[in-house]
Amino acid sequence: MLQEFDSRNKNIQVFVKDRLYPRTEAKVSVFDSSVQGGDAVWEGLRVYPEGIVCLDKHLTRLQESAKTLAFEDIPSKDFIKKAIKQTLDANGMNDETHIRLTLTRGEKITSGMDPRLNQNGTTLIVLAEWKPLVYDNAIGIKVISVSQRRNAPHFLDSKIHHNNLLNNIMAKIQANVAGKDAGLMLDEKGFVAELNGSNLFMVKHGKVYTPFAHACLPGITRESVVQLCKKHEIEIIEADLTLSQFYNAEGVFATGTMGELTPVIEIDGRSISSSHLLMNQLLKFFKEEVRTLCEKL
Ligand SMILES: Cc1ncc(COP(=O)(O)O)c(C=O)c1O
Question: Cα separations (Å) of 169 from 148, 172, 197?
Fold first, then answer.
């Protein structure tokens, strides 16, 4: 599914470093680390009238990713929250909104890889757009397994939510070429890791399974689903899972802030039912629960 331009986003205001700019003027320098080396961290946030889903967890992950990458001058949660509030207020947004929150290592004094060239502090970007859920969750998505493997910790730890997204973009290109919605990425041992931009779950014999977070982003929506299973006394198991197990699952779904819970109805040409009772119960529980996970600014 290809997202389309939403004309409501034509004149949005975007926060860059310390103030708002109109969309056409919202830019970073050619010396910015994100341009020079994809040297930035990011979060996707979803906005409801009740607040932002799991805001504190997202801000913690952003700060921890930045600490791992040894950013100096990491902004406080308070500073980031004020920047988000300023952006949402300026755009009159409180629903159907997705925020791409980015923190770059900042502007360099000259081009180069060395973080010591960053002497101007980090750059925070709050890009809030009108963006309803990106998939039609009533229909679901078709995916294909790709040759590009998801990073394991000994290459580049998938627990860092960084902007160096080429690992995932290569997978998405393969899915595009095949005419499918997303690329299913394996880890370096051949177990299922995740889709190129969301986590995966499967349902079989009354139990819910998800891959270990060894080579996938430990998604915040993934964590909410795990908690939801525990709350409703549904057995949830983290495991090494193969493609064959996913092909023969009774239900498969993807999780992420952009699309929330999305049934996967085909993997590598094998159909998977989207009408499994337990899976649909989980989808319903999440819909009911998501607004209680919102935090006011
Ligand atoms: C590779 C990848 N996996 C999974 C996710 C889902 O994570 P979350 O549920 O925290 O949005 C994302 C979202 O950014 C992602 O980029």
Answer: 10, 5, 9
